[in-house]
Amino acid sequence: MIDAILSGLTALTAGAQHLITLNGLLCLAMLVIAGVMFYLAIVKDVEPLLLLPIAFGCFLVNLPLSEVMGHDGVLKTFYDFGIGNELFPLLIFVGIGSMTDFTPLIANPKLLLFGAAGQLGIFATLLLALLVFNFTKEEAVSVAMIGACDGPTVIYVSNLFAGLNKIPTAMVGALAVAAYSYMALVPVIQPPIMRLLTTEKERQVKMPSVKGKVSKTALIAFPLAVTLITGIIAPKGLPLMGMIMLGNFMKVTGVVTRLTKCSENEIANIATLFLGLAIGGTMFGPAFLKTETLFIFGLGLFAIIIDTAGGILLGKLWYLLSGGKVNPLIGAAGISAYPMAARLVQTEGQRWNKHNFLLMHAMGANTGGQIGSVMAAAIMLAVLKGLGVIP
Amino acid sequence: MPPTTLSDSTFGLTMLIVGMGGTLVTLWLLTLLLKGLTSLFPVKEEPASGLPHSNPPHNH
Question: Is A123 an interface residue toward B (CB < 8 Å)?
């Protein structure tokens, strides 16, 4: 009888006992990190839609003897159901497509080139991760994708490798948190680079107002054309581009309003909730707290800086070629953080010339950045397949 | 060439050149395509985007 009572009491204190083991202390550290993420999401409004469920997933998985990521655990079920098979990132892409207005880009197609220059960070980071930080090829590609400034793309690509057992699952969590953190920090990261790489004269360039109208037929043809080109050149990236363009196609046709609203609200929200929880579930202390995680955050910052620099440098080249008619600041909007990067360019432009309205140009470059990031990921996957790195 | 035979530097440079180059060229192709689309379907022939058709002109 007494033995049974003691066994029962031991079971109740097993969690507390676990905390004083090495793994327990690592989990305790992760609980503190979860607390920091709660603070950032709730108090500082840093990407709360994603950071809050990620933090809660992290909180759940690091509680002593938690089984939420064990066999048949609730977060493991979410992970297998929507991340292991890449479903959730793709559903979020449908929502993103249905929320994005590509009109400024279609009206000024050349702005799409800023979306290409804004991906320079991906490839520069890949090189750095391989040669300096000794990441494996698959790990380096995953880390470099933070430069896409696009959370679902990072999760999609990294999870592809996790599914092939080429990178640890815990790395997906670190990559996702880094990607979403830096997306939220774009207003802090970009302005110093903008000022560093441009002269006052360049920042003051006033650009003419843009024509903002596009025919409905062109709007409808756009997602089909982008999907077609992606399918021909980089079919491995077709799920990514196809879903974002499906969302946009539904929006611009205007004939499936219910589906569009559902995509941008219910579908995107449900996928975001479960994706966040499952990603948080991968942040198990003993697997997460490694030197590589610090490297991932450092390289992620490097990637965003080079992205911004790439766009601005193209803007400077354009400024020279156009005889000073293009404000190089709009190049900074060539990343996927939409519409934050475009608004930042508008704010920065007006700081130096209060009569300057760069928003429409920047919106074009910004939506170009959205397409550019997905296209870069698609091209990367196509090249990796060509090199035999992925099947 | 199998990936195992590629050194890290060769792999990284290949990705940089083909990946970044491929992205640039593909988006440049898209730019041309978009120019074609806007020329083929000019705005004056159709109602402008983003403008709802809910307010038909009044007959005075």
Answer: yes
